[in-house]
Amino acid sequence: MGSDPQFARYPNLALAQDVFTLTNPSSSHASRQASLRKLQDAISEHKMAPLYRHLAHPTDGILNATGEGSASRPPPSSRRSNGSSQKASRSRETSSVQFPWDEELYEKLKLENDKELETFTKEEEEAAETAGDTEIQAAKGKRAEFWARIGDKEKALSSYEAVFEKTGILGTKIDLVLAIIRIGLFFGDKLLVKKHVDRAKALVESGGDWDRRNRLKAYQGLHLLTIRSYNLAAPLLLDSLSTFTSYELCSYSSLVVYSVLAGSVSLKRVDFKSKVVDTPEVKAILGDGEDKLAALTGAVSAGSGAGDEDMKDATLSTSTPKPAPTAVNLTTLGSSADGVAEAETPVDFTALAGLVRSLYIGNYQAFFLALAAVEENFLSQDRYLYEHRVWFVREMRLRGYQQLLQSYRIVSLKSMATDFGVSVDFLDRDLAKFIAADRIPCTIDRVNGIIETNRPDDKNKQYTDVVKQGDALITKLQKYGQAVRLRGSERG
Q1: Span 83-107, pLDDT tens digits
Q2: Among 185-199, 226-240, 319-333, where is mean pLDDT lowest?
Q3: Which of 206, 376, 138, 157 is nearest to 216 (CA)?
Q4: Which residues of 149-166 are buried (b: 16+ CB within 10 A; e: fewer)?
Q5: 320-354 b/e with 16+ CB inside 10 Å = b?
Q6: How far apart are CA 96 and CA 40, in angstroms?
Q7: How much is the pTM?
Q8: Residue-wise pLDDT tens digits, 48-95
Q9: What are phi and psi of 230, to 5 degrees?
């Protein structure tokens, strides 16, 4: 039996997305204004003096206006990620929305923080005098959550560690480590996140309950996504879709986006069909009318039986994709950690649904158009995806090229360019990069206007590997023989 998760309310990772929106040159002016209002409201409501200083201070804040104390700005601290400073610099150059600094407001928030800390100190002293260890730990836990709530990274980490050291319950220890991971995600500290994901895995393996095991899958998958390990993130995120309860980490709609993108770029075609295209959770969001209804009613299910036998040749279909869903409200699909339903903004999944469908059926012109829309609507707007958007688009183009070329020995350069809806010159340059990097086994004959694939022969490859390994072994034996003879002559 597992207890309810603790320490799951703070920090609010949605605020980190709002900070990113303010620094993102791809964000619209309206979205920046909305994010600014959310941040200002949250700072006032939760008395977030440290976070306010971190963001808006004229000299120390990462969102401070151009020229205000920039000459005397100290270098970023070791705990602040390079991405934060780069985003801040980009913001000052491109964003017309500024986070105003109000010294009077800051002092007021700081004073209210001090008053709240005094109540925690009194509660801890009373618990130490009249109550037991459980009450003392509960009081210390409130202090740790307080630091996480107001955005003081260092004090929140030290407070959580102090509570961890005095806690003997495994479930509570896991919850504390997950809270530390969220602090790392909030401030973009990837090293801190990696360290504590490994720590949480060790705790879960030592006897964690089912719920915390599932929650850790989402945490680990999201961390792997941020460090561009999409092939490792995909199975974890896709597995989390059916059992997702980590609403303190991200919304369900965000999880769907992360899962589909990771699976699309990393899974083999057979796995892509069974784990993305045919998965009921994905169909319920991205499917057309009939597929969505069947997924929601449980009439379809994905698994090992979802084979690849009925798949059409990727290069034969040029049909137009079926209409994709426009906006989906996922409010009813889950609730937050404290059991209160949290409304999500309706998400337009049209581009994502088009990407999955066009890649699967081989409609490559629609695939490139959907890929451009996905970059604009998802990759460029999400704080976890933005850093890797160029890599993702490049890898998806490569996947489309590979999928078409594997069906042919020789293909016309012009016809392939027509299939993808690009010019011959662009296709020539793009393919040349992948060929030079040994990512596509083919050659381009520009004189005759053809692409000739070089299908790898497994038997020849095995023979070549054996010859290479044999040569290496003979070289080692010769060196060993020389060493033995030298030692023999020395003894003589």
Answers
A1: 444 444 444 444 456 788 999 999 9
A2: 319-333
A3: 206
A4: bbbbbebbbebbebbbee
A5: ebeebbeebebbebbeebeeeeeebeebebbbbbb
A6: 17
A7: 0.79
A8: 999 999 999 988 888 875 433 333 334 344 444 444 444 444 444 444
A9: -65, -35
Residue among 216, 196, 193, 192 at smallest CA distance from 204 = 216
Using an 8 Å Cβ cutoff, are 39 and 11 in contact?
no
Of 381, 388, 342, 346, whose CA–CA distance to 12 is shortest?
Answer: 342
Q: Percent helix, strand and coil across the chain, each rounded to 5?
A: 65, 5, 30
Q: How far is CA 71 from CA 35, 66, 74, 157, 268, in A?
A: 28, 10, 9, 31, 52
Tokens representing 53 are 């200083």
SS3 132: coil
Token digits of residue 264: 């699309």
What is the distance between the alpha carbons of residues 246 and 137, in angstroms, rounded to a whole number? Answer: 24
- 281 Cβ contact partners less than 8 Å away, ≥ 6 residues apart: 241, 242, 256, 295
Q: Compute how many other C-beta atoms are within 10 angstroms of the C-beta atom of residue 173.
A: 20
What single-letter DSSP state applies at residue 409?
Answer: S
Residue with tokens 């949605």: 14
Structure tokens at 49: 């003096």
> In this structure, what token pair is assigned to residue 55?
């963001």
β-strand partners of 445: 450
Q: What are phi and psi of 180, to 5 degrees?
A: -65, -40
Q: Using CA atoms, how far apart are residues 64 and 75, in angstroms rounded to an integer? A: 14
Q: Using the Cα atoms of residue 423, residue 424, residue 428 and residue 429 in order, give the sign of their dihedral.
A: negative
